[in-house]
Amino acid sequence: MFSRDRWNEIIEALTANWFRTLLTAFGVCWGIFILVILLAAGKGLENGVKQGFGDIATNTMFMWTQVASKPYKGLPKGRRFNFKIDDVTSIREKVPGLLYISPRNQLGGFGGTDNVVRGLNTGAFNVYGDYPEIINQDPITITSGRFINYGDIDNSRKVAVIGEGVKKELFKIGEEPIGEYIKIKGVNFMVIGTYMKKSNNGDREQGQNEIFVPFTSFSQAFNQADNVGWMAITAQDDQSITKLKKNIIDVMKTNHTIHPEDNRAIGNFDLYQEFSKINGLFIALRGVAYFVGVLVLLSGIIGISNIMLIVVKERTKEIGIRRALGASPWSIRGQILLESIFLTIISGMTGIAVSTGVILLVNKILDGIPADNETMFANPSVDLTVVFVALFILITSGLLAGLIPAQVAIKTKPIDALRAE
Amino acid sequence: MGSNSLHVLKGINFNVNEGELVAIMGSSGSGKSTLLNILGMLDEADSGSYFLDNIPIKNLNEKIAARYRNKFLGFIFQSFNLINYKNALDNVAMPLYYQGIKRKERTDKALHYLEKVGLADWATHLPNELSGGQKQRVAIARALASEPKVLLADEPTGALDTKTSYEVMELIQGINDEGKTILIVTHEEDIAHMTKRIVNLKDGLIIDDGIVEQVRAKSYV
After folding, report:
1. What is the CA radius of gyration of chain B?
2. Given its phi and psi angles, is residue A12 left (phi above 0), alpha (psi -120 to 50 degrees) or beta?
3. With contact defined as beta carbons under 8 Å apart, do A266 and A253 qualify?
4. Residue of chain A minimizing CA distance to B87
């Protein structure tokens, strides 16, 4: 089957009519081109949108307290309550499968008043009281110094990790911030590190204007006692936070004497669920790409089948001669099938090569756009799986395209084939 | 195709010995080509038996028929039936390809037979670069290449002028002289008389079968 002679035969047969072969090949080439480009475009859109999520751990939920909406055990509705630091331990004990539970507190916010002072410079920044684990849940890149550690937590050290944006506003260019003090709401904190953050929910600027201080010193300095503003909870990799969410909230309801059916008392945002929704969208998009691409490819394949039929018709006499000389039906059939598969694969591979070339070009252009610009499109690409899937589709379709012509080729008796003019 | 069948051959009984050169003659529709096609396993008889070198040829499926054709038979057609996009050498090598012979050996053999028909210098020419006589000689080389037991020629000179016909017949006689069994279908008297035995067919029956004095084609050339 893979002898040199066989291939010579195929090449000879296909090059006998160059122009027709090229036109036929173009159909399949175009089909696979469309398929790959559609898949890559879908992937590019997916990458672009997911980039908006930044590096945040997606198996994560955020949980905060709202107002009790049902009276329970003698407590009135409309009651306000706070998570306490002990809640963290009780969640950890009662809900297995969780990776990180980070209690957080926050100062300031969008459009807040100036709350941070250094010398003559002031600025309004978000200040977070955090545990060291938060860096694993909402990753930032430390550009100098270090992040908060448990030593800082245990000793309630008044230290701060500031964003590059904060550094720009409070320090002169070239000035070394580490070891310097900044005044947050009148309390001095020593800068121990600076960081950079990738995009977060499409707000790159905001991400650099944050200050992280140890949770314990935050509570102390800003009179939070053992209150917890909200929690960021990440499940282990093999667990789904969406499934664990209910258990966690139930534990909180018990701890804070909330009616079990009070769904409004504890607010939450399930990142995983949001992420799944978007994932679903892209799976659908990929489905559409395959659907359209394969259909376009199909018309190319019908073209091949058509041409092979014509070729067989044209070569009826030749096939008759070959059979008179002793070609077995299978050798004829195999010849037609191989020709069809070969033509399909060659043209398909050309299509893949051209489309990846186009993708490369698009990537080059996208790379040229400054990184600060938020685009909804990033790194369009196809992985090797797609190429293999395409290859599989090509071989199958080449086989299908050749099947009918091959059957036609051997259906005619050699004597009739010889008589054909 | 149609529901009414036509019986072309109505009882043919004849025997060809090794080394014979037989002409099958008859007017159009006498069944001579049909006979040759049955002998060539291109067609099958409705009834009767056919032995080739003591092997019964019956109940052939296409696969076996193809193998027998390849091993036992060489065909020479009126319209040469060369493959247009293959050069003379490759055309001659074709039956060897289907025998599964290696490329090198195939080329050597094919070249040998091309030499035998005097066309070694034309080995790399395509059929449309050859004259009719040359094409037929390539076809003869092709028929010989697989070293068949029998050569079957269907109007081998039908498309050639007289001079070329005699040249081709001279070649065929030479091959027969070497001991090859050859059957020629023809309706030309002069060609028939260049064989050693003439079988006359009419309406599907043998009306005459006799040894003739062979006229050497050489005397005409």
Report:
1. 17
2. alpha
3. yes
4. A12
Residue corresponding to tokens 């890149």:
A141
Whether residues A325 and B69 touch (CB distance < 8 A) is answered with yes
Hey, are the CB atoms on B103 and A418 less than 8 Å from each other? Answer: no
Amino acid identity, residue B168? V
B66 → closest Cβ in A328, A413, A415: A328
Q: Cβ–Cβ of B81/A321 closer than 8 Å?
A: yes
Q: Which residues of B touch A325 (CB under 8 A)?
A: 69-70, 75, 94-95, 98, 142, 146
Q: Which of A10, A20, A319, A325 to mutate to test the interface with B (most CBs of B within 10 A)?
A: A325
Please list the residues that pair with A67 across neighbouring strands: A80
Closest alpha carbon within chain A to B94:
A325
CA–CA distance, A271 with A61 (Å, rounded to integer): 6
Q: A92 vs A69, A98, A102, A222, A247, CA distance in Å?
A: 26, 7, 11, 26, 11
The ipTM value here is: 0.87
The parts of chain A modelled with pLDDT lower than 70 are: 1-2, 54-55, 109-112, 199-204, 370-375, 420-421
Q: How far off is chain A from B199, nearest CA to CA, in Å?
A: 23
Q: What is the pLDDT of residues A149-195, one digit of tens each?
A: 999 999 999 999 999 889 988 998 888 999 999 999 889 999 999 99
Which residues of chain B are within 8 Å of residue A5 when distances are taken between CB atoms? 97, 103
d(CA A94, CA A86): 13
pLDDT, tens digit (0-9, with 9 covering 90-100), for A221-238: 988 888 998 999 999 988
Contact criterion met (CB below 8 Å) for A314 and A417: no
Task: Round to whole Å and give the CA distance between B32 and A123.
Answer: 110
Is residue B97 within 8 angstroms of chain A, CB to CB? yes
* Contact residues for B147 (Cβ-Cβ < 8 A; gap 6+): none
| Interface contact A329-B97, CB threshold 8 A | no
What type of residue is A263?
Answer: N
Out of B42, B83, B142, name the one closest to residue A414 (CB). Answer: B42
Tokens of A292: 């359209």
Cα–Cα distances in angstroms (integers) from residue A374 to residues A323, A368, A371, B125, B175, in the given order? 66, 13, 7, 66, 86
Mark yes or no for CB contact A324/B42 under 8 Å: yes
pLDDT tens digits for range B168-198: 999 999 999 998 999 999 988 889 999 999 9
Nearest to B147 by CA among B173, B171, B112: B112
Interface contact flag, A326 B37, Cβ < 8 Å: no
pTM, entire model = 0.68
Q: What pLDDT is attached to residue A1?
A: 47
pLDDT of residue B103: 87
Tokens, residue B211: 């040894």
Find, among B53, B63, B8, the residue nearest to B35 by Cα. B8
Q: Do B142 and A325 touch (CB under 8 A)?
A: yes
Task: Verify whether the Cβ–Cβ distance B63 to A415 is below 8 Å.
Answer: no
